[in-house]
Amino acid sequence: MKMSDQIAAQIRRMIARGELVDGDWLPTEAELIERFGVSRPTLREAFRLLEGDSLVTIRRGPPGGARVTLPGPDAVADLFGMILMLSGTTIGDVWDARLTIEPPAVRRLAESATKTVIKRLDAELDTLRSVIDDPREFGKAGVRFYVRLVELSGNHTLTAVIGMLSVIIERELAKSLVEIGPDSDEVRRANRRALRGYEKVVELIRARDSEAAESAWLEHMNSVRRYVAKTQKQDHVIDLLY
């Protein structure tokens, strides 16, 4: 293994162990060169590897340096989506994956929700209400709400998966919006129905009615799926290039 790879691996481990956290600056080049006993070009190659992993941001020019920037699911969402597209994944397949992930996550969330979690959900609802008359922004806020439900359920793996799927979900909803017409009465009615669905599931989570919350979210998702199916065939392969 090249020395630059070894240095990058050591810094990755430091980040993974929490020795370096989001926003921390790495020591100066001079300090790192002395610590690792390498040349400046080797150290900078290690920095480029970490930058390629979206683990650091490089500030070039004096004073320069590298800052830890922990990536979220969106950092690999485009690549993940491209892999699905190239493997012939259909929109229906994506919906099936969501139906497998989201309703059970909502059930877990209702079983474990704290006052802090409820406040965060209420904040998401306030955001949705504030953009109800802007179909494009409402669609984006709705996708964020889906991701937040899974995130707050506490499973990091499922949060990462739904976070990566969110780029596909958002683009498909945006495509449907263009097909139907963003200013149409149909879209505005659909958004108001969606908001009522979001409000209903939050109230059920607040009441800790896990079974009803899961059923409500399943019903909401099937409703949205039928709506999207009006403009798109569920068996067509996802296309992230339009």
UniProtKB/TrEMBL annotation:
Transmembrane segments: none annotated. GO terms for molecular function: DNA binding; DNA-binding transcription factor activity. InterPro entries: GntR_C, TF_FadR/GntR_C, Tscrpt_reg_HTH_GntR, WH-like_DNA-bd_sf, WH_DNA-bd_sf. Residues 1-71 form the HTH gntR-type domain. Keywords: DNA-binding, Transcription, Transcription regulation. CDD domains: WHTH_GntR. PANTHER family: TRANSCRIPTIONAL REGULATOR, GNTR FAMILY, UXU OPERON TRANSCRIPTIONAL REGULATOR. This is GntR family transcriptional regulator. It comes from Mycolicibacter sinensis (strain JDM601) (Mycobacterium sinense).
